[in-house]
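Suppose a colleague, Dr. K., hands you the sequence of a protein chain of 474 amino acids and asks what its three-dimensional shape might be. Before reaching for any lab equipment, you can write down a predicted structure in token form. Begin with the sequence itself:
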Amino acid sequence: MRHFRTAAGLTLDALGAAVGVAPSLLSMIENGRREPRLSLLQQVASALGVTVADLLADAAPSRRAGLEIELDRAQRGPLYATLGLPAVRASGRLPLPVLENLVGLHRELTRRATEAVATPEEARRANTELRLERQARDNYLPEIERLAERMTRAAGYGVGPLTHRTVARMAEQLGFTILHVDDLPHSTRTVTDLHHGRIYLPPASIPGGHGLRSLALQAIAHRVLDHRRPASYAEFLRQRVEITYFAACCLIPERAAVEFLGQRKKAKDLAVEDLRDAFGVTHEAAAQRFTNLATAHLGIPVHFLRVADDGALFRAYANDGLVLPADVTGAIEGQLVCRRWAAREALERRDRATESYQYTDTPAGTFWCSTQTGTTAGGEFSITVGVPFSSATWFRGRETRVRKVSTCPDEACCRRPEEVASTRWEGAAWPSARMHQQVLAALPRGAFPGVDDAEVYAFLERHAPEPGAPGRAG
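The predicted structure, expressed as tokens, is then:
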């Protein structure tokens, strides 16, 4: 309204006289302190030679008007209120450079506040919400299953492991070419050039390797799932869950996997290691994929655990009644699992070449578990898939005689020191704890947390085709 009034060369007094209201009322309307009647808006629009729609348009009529509106909204927000500072009136007399500086400062203030919210606690909260949501859906997402099945079939998939060539064809069907480079930005796993239709991956590894196929499929997933730049860390995590799920659906396609698992269940010989070998993926990938299909297609409730060598829970899912260790917020990441659970017992075994099996009696019931251990640069870990006692009959290893009793979360189970040792060493021990830096670190800034935009853009500049070279615009 102020924009059209000043453009028409009218003062508040002149416009007030034209529409028959006090100039002070018009001033309050222009400053957002009074809601005008529709009849008054019609009179004002007529006096200014514009339409009511022009006055009510969402888009600002000019850059300056947009800046004035943005400053006003920022100063009305809860973030500015916490500063205890007086508001600066965004009037026409405020110099444009000052207006630009004020708006820029408010934008940076908002960005930093948003970044501060993205702390590890926020990540844990978002993770917890996602885990409970997946649990309610039996970790099965039929929409993504159907999409992956359709795309793999269209690319020529039949049976067995998904080949690198099939993955490349899936990318080609979307207008993308997969390229392997040795200078990917350190903060990325893949980079997609939307202008030229290129997906950049790390250098090719051992033929048939699971890792590169999964990375390529996750990059493809962002496109076919119509993801936009995440507006929050929770949305970023949700997108990560969805692309990981899509990749798993492609690497172990639903139709082939259900047929395979159905035959094994009929023979009472279900085993994660067989699913792993049949589709050429890692043990962890097969175990997680099993949780997607076990309940929805086999009627078997299940739990999955990845546990570090210190007993800390890294990732978990359960819809079979197993009570996962959690903090007061419900987050499970970093919580210690019981020493009696198969996930930790397996790490004490000398022979780790094959899966180990165990029954565990817990306050929530008895569970049968299959566990495989592994090693990374960060240390040893275990992957566990478990089911209630009544479902063990379908699995290889059900005849095991290994049985443990866990009463956790009762500290007397495995966390309370033995009385003799406690009496001897309490007050006489002073360990130097190993610090986990991620406990204190805020999550990295940016729309894609942890990604260095400058590094990514410099990478794309290096690899972009010359003008006129074949490429895909978009």
